[in-house]
Amino acid sequence: MSLRRIAAIARQDLRILRTDPMAVVPLIVLPLVVMPFLQPAFRAAFHFAGLHRATGAEQVVPGMAITFGFFLVMNTCSSFFREHTWQTWDRLRASPAGTAEILLGKVVTPLVEVTLQFLLLFGFAGLLMDLHVRGSWLGLCAVGCAFAVFLVTTGVALTGVCRTYMQANAAVATGALVTGGFAGALVPFALLPPWAQSVAPLVPSYWAMQGYKHAIFGGKTVLVPILLLLGFSLISTVVAACRFRLDDPKIGPT
Amino acid sequence: MLKVRGVHKSYGPVKALNGVDLDVGRGEIVALLGPNGAGKSTLVSVIAGLHRPDRGGVWLNGVDTGTHPDLARRQLGLAPQETGIYPTLTVLDNLRFFGELAGLRKRDLLRRIDEVAAAFSLGDLLDRRARNLSGGEARRLHTAMIVLHRPPLLLLDEVTAGVDVQTRNQLLDLVGSLAEQGSAVVYSTHYLHEIEALGAQRVAILLEGRVVTAGSIPDLIGAFGDSFVELKFEQRPTGLDLPPGTVVVAENVLRVPAEDSPAVTAADLVGRLDRSGAPLREIRLLQPSLESVFLSVTAGAANGGPP
User: Fold this and answer.
1) With contacts defined as CB-CB under 8 Å, which chain A residues touch B16?
2) Tens digit of pLDDT for each residue in A89-147?
3) How many domains, in total, are found in chain A?
4) Is pTM, for the whole model, over 0.90?
5) Start and end residues for every CATH 3.40.50.300 domain found in chain B
6) Residue A15: which of B48, B89, B105 has the nearest Cβ?
7) Distance, in angstroms, between A86 CA and closest chain B CA?
8) Which residue of A has its CA nearest to B80?
9) What residues contact residue A50 under an 8 Å CB cut-off, 6+ apart?
10) HSE of B22, CA atoms in CB hemisphere, 13 A
11) CB distance A90–B50 less than 8 Å?
């Protein structure tokens, strides 16, 4: 395995992102725009629940990071599907780069994107939205990393499962809203109906939300959410290993 | 340089390759010729390692592509049939990427980009986004991307499809000079005149997934280069009395083997057609050439006989 080739593929995808940065709009710009609108509603909900020191940012920032973060799955899928549209996939496969090098090179850009999202959202909230991390910033970063790994591995798995870009797109849009809902990312978890609360632990986003909350409010360990997120990542990795075939014909975006 | 032995490849019930053998030496240009669906692109894909053969094997410089695909891929450059470039990036970035993948670095990489860009007339276009290139320019970039690291084997699958005459001639010249520099070239096409223009040392004719014959152009013409008279009618002719061996090329096109000279056969045919009243539109005399070889071989194989 050659780090140089992995870096070359990563740089190529970063160049593509630089020429068309719209891919990060749903990931970063939309949550930045939405968060200030939702914060008062969440602050009121916390106050109603007796948490008078809460600013609402404790809910809205991780909630939006998780919901919109799901679009990273789409960005991961896109980096493969567009190669099919541009007819460059076979060229890449016939190049000296091996399978592992292609896959590793391809996940670097999504990881850069999600790191940017994390820094900008939590940084913005820390500076302008009264987000106070009473637990651990390190724990917060660790949860962010575990969730990023889950999103990227899920992106590769979804690419393996879906034949067309539109299938992947539909799956991601649905997944973002449904898992965000179950996780308590869209409304406080306590306000979810009981059946949804009982289903929620089966959803990775729920554990991301729990992890972020534990790190922000403090008092509880982030280790369990992190381990469970890594467990979900392992499931995605197994699906990717079983279903991702380099020679599968794919229909990319037109 | 390249050794292909007994390669079979099926896609479901379709046998794309049915026991292909092929050898290409260093500096040699071998043209793969065959009608659509003959298996040319599949063979190129198998050699490039994009598809695993069901049976048989491919060796590049003695390296088995099945057991050491990574090592094998370092020795080849593939320009597939469809133009494959990154449209949002510049010509320079497209070239740089494939140079980096091939292991070129810094000064070496920039020097090779300059050399290749000059050879492919892309020097003034390096800063242009690939989506803004003309069809011919894009095709030149498509081909240039594989020669940066001077691979010992070049796989070119119909690289001149859809380009103008100037670009075609330029690409053929470049392929010829790459072979002169020592690269083995597998050149898949169905443009017969390109093979002659390219100066291919050998031609392998594929039909229904197998190499039905292979040899140098003079050898093939000597062995199979019959003369023909081709008759084109206004509409499908009926009730004609034509010599044995006549082949129906299309609904309104017949090809008659010329036992003597094509001119004598043509005169005889015109007499016969006059009597039948068939609406003849065009008559062509086909001298022994690669085209007549191809027609003989494919017609012979299609009729179940030896090529």
Assistant:
1) none
2) 999 999 999 999 999 999 999 999 999 999 999 999 999 998 989 999 999 999 999 99
3) 1
4) no
5) 2-217
6) B89
7) 6
8) A91
9) none
10) 36
11) yes
